[in-house]
From TrEMBL:
SUPFAM superfamilies in alphabetical order: GckA/TtuD-like
Pfam families: DUF4147, MOFRL
GO cellular component: cytoplasm
Span of domain MOFRL-associated: 3-245
Highest classification ranks of the organism: unclassified sequences, metagenomes, ecological metagenomes
Gene3D superfamilies named among the record's database cross-references: Glycerate kinase, MOFRL-like N-terminal domain, MOFRL domain
Domain MOFRL intervals: 332-364
Residue runs in coiled coils: none
Species for this entry: marine sediment metagenome
UniProt-recorded name of the protein: MOFRL-associated domain-containing protein
Signal peptide: none
Length: 370
């Protein structure tokens, strides 16, 4: 039941409905108001594992509560069957590959850029981003092709690098990520842009969610270079990408747009869902059932196998604080974050499974009943 509540609390359609309303052509997001009568049309772009459902809810809101014209284009994972999604006449959904980008994803990003480059100051652009957007939204820099991007992603995903480190590389070899979509919009039309985000990233680092296409980049080419050194990848990535990063290290003018850059002056960002919301909902439910909540970490990271083994000792240490009678010791330990798996052989990795199996193996080796 707790798992069901955790998932339900961040259901994308529910989050959009809770965050956005329209009344008398006034769009409300949180406490902000946007008068839709001042805009000629709405353009919707984005990508991620949750954006199809976000778009379906947004489509329902616009077609039932407003007269404004709108259209959009999104990249969503190819395993999300279009026939199972509520049809959206105005918002096209393009199936692309995750976690390794493909040509379909690149074609989809080109469609999005065509859309935003058709914008005027009188248009409102809404960007929908969620976890998975980094892989689903490939747009390599000049001289880097999609095959190069696929190799780089494969190397990074197998290396044990954190999602923040992986996205640091992705942002610096892309012409879409790291604030560069915001730059494209600014150079085209300076259109008002609303970025709607559902986060699955530790600490809700906005520049890391979908690699922050409309968010100031807090990382640098030097950071990307150091990630490659750390995981011994500098001489393993394609030469095209290495050349881009090395040139960026030498030339600060090539850095991505950062804080206080004018390209963000018309960008308004809203984080409408995150793991903290799930934790709050689950904790409330468990407290009603007389569980004591031990939220032991919101920054779980590192190797899944190592964390699984270590979790056993963390649990046993914490249990020392509680009475031994089971009826007096209803404890719910909650931890959130994102683990990594360093691949060996041809496995595809499974973070939670690897963590849990290592926890169970440790319990078994310690001969403890569970």
């Amino acid at each position: 039941k707790s798992l069901e509540i955790a998932i339900s609390s961040v259901e994308p359609r529910k989050l959009i409905r809770n965050a956005m309303t329209i009344s008398d052509e006034i769009l409300m997001i949180e406490q902000d108001k946007y008068d839709l009568k001042k805009f000629e049309r709405i353009l919707i772009v984005g990508g991620g594992k949750a954006t199809a459902q976000m778009a379906i809810a947004l489509d329902e809101l616009l077609k039932t509560s407003s007269k404004i014209e709108y259209e959009g284009f999104l990249n969503i994972p190819e395993d999300q069957e279009l026939k199972l999604l509520t049809p959206t006449k105005n918002i096209k959904m393009n199936l692309a590959s995750h976690p390794i980008p493909n040509e379909a994803g690149l074609n989809g990003v080109n469609k999005m850029l065509e859309l935003v480059e058709s914008s005027s100051k009188r248009d409102l652009i809404i960007c929908l981003f969620s976890g998975g957007g980094s892989a689903l939204l490939p747009m390599p820099k000049k001289n880097i092709n999609i095959t190069d991007i696929q190799k780089i992603n494969s190397l990074l995903l197998a290396s044990g690098a954190s999602i923040h480190e992986i996205n640091t590389i992705r942002k610096h070899i892309s012409d879409f990520k790291g604030g560069k979509l915001a730059k494209r919009i600014y150079e085209t039309s300076k259109a008002t842009t609303l970025t709607i985000i559902i986060s699955d990233v530790v600490g809700n680092k906005l520049d890391s969610i979908a690699s922050g296409p409309t968010i100031p980049d807090l990382t640098s080419f030097n950071d990307a270079y150091n990630v490659l050194l750390k995981y011994n990848l500098l001489d393993r990535i394609p030469m095209s990408a290495k050349a881009v990063i090395m040139e960026g290290v030498k030339n600060p003018r090539l850095e991505n747009p950062s804080e206080n850059d004018p390209v963000f002056e018309n960008v308004h960002t809203y984080l409408i869902g995150s793991v903290e919301l799930s934790v709050e909902e689950v904790s409330n439910y468990l407290r009603k059932h007389d569980f004591e909540i031990d939220y032991f970490s919101n920054k779980i990271s590192g190797e899944a196998a190592d964390f699984g083994k270590g979790l056993f000792y963390l649990i046993t240490e914490k249990l020392k604080k509680y009475p031994k009678e089971p009826e007096k010791s209803r404890i719910a330990m909650i931890g959130t974050g994102e683990l990594t798996v360093t691949l060996r052989g041809k496995g595809i990795g499974g973070r939670n499974q690897e963590m849990l199996l290592n926890l169970l193996n440790t319990i078994k080796s310690e001969k403890i009943d569970y």
